[in-house]
Amino acid sequence: MKQIALTGIKPTGQPHIGNYLGMIKPALELAEDYQALYFIADYHALTTVKNKKELTDLTYQVAATWLALGLDPARVIFYRQSDIPEVFELSWVLACFTSKGLLNRAHAYKTLVDDNTEAGREEDKNINAGLYTYPVLMAADILLFGAHIVPVGFDQKQHLEITRDVALTFNNNYREVLVVPEVVIRKEVMTITGLDGRKMSKSYNNIIPLFAPSNQVRKQVMRIVTDSKRPEEPKVPDECNVFAIYRHFSDADAIKAKRQQYLDGGLAYGDMKNELYELLEATFSEQRERYNALMDNRAELEKVLQDGAEKARDIAVPILAKVRKAIGVTGAI
Ligand code: TRP
What we know:
single chain; Rossmann fold; Tyrosyl-Transfer RNA Synthetase; 2 domains; two-stranded parallel ribbon; 13 helices; 5 strands; 7% strand; globular; binds tryptophan
């Protein structure tokens, strides 16, 4: 039996090309060698997304995006976190094995506390307890399925350390019940440049959406920040935000030729942006059609997610039973 690779996708924003290059593409490649369990972490999103329609829409968008980009639900177990009630039972159990001090030090929580303190507010002002216990729910997502590896971006490293710590504490108290997972950090995530040269991220409002209508994609590409060199002037490819994105979608020969054009001068940024736009259109047009078809057929999306949840629960239920037995809450001695 193959080892399990598991990861969660938080539905908090419109999927963009940074998500594709940094997460979706490597995850789909990994699914060739592992039994992959990929899920939409909608209950994690609830810590911040509190609008019903928004949460529902974002969840379907994420599902349609992964399917359009090639996730094969016959091979990957693809599901929605909220369809797995066992996650939430395990979450409580794990909370009883999580040191509170560890949660106090979790980055996401600590950042908000620091912001409050700096602004002279009470330190927990506007911080909900869901955000505070977020890492426990994440540990449950992982440990419930006996995941061997968890591929994530660097920002999730600390969460994985907490997961491992909790699993070891639990195993120490009872016996080796839980699989202690390894973290696999995807380095590329940090290097995908947004419109303004910072990491591409919804929170910086510097994204290029994957499947938005063409005119919106075009508008975003045109917004990419460049310096003010005139067309005829030589330019530095490695300092150009347009080039930084272009290179992810081109082969080695094309990149080399383009690099030379920059150095030689004569390439206008406007033309380069047009070229990038055309390239993105060509790269994603087929997938966009698939995406739109799926978004128009939510019953089909629902069916995929329900089938996935059923398969996921087949793995989860026996593991939770083992945990309950180890603790002594089942009634069986
Ligand atoms: N916290 C992750 C993020 O913000 C999403 C996530 C939830 C996750 N549960 C997980 C990732 C379990 C890996 C494993 O992106």
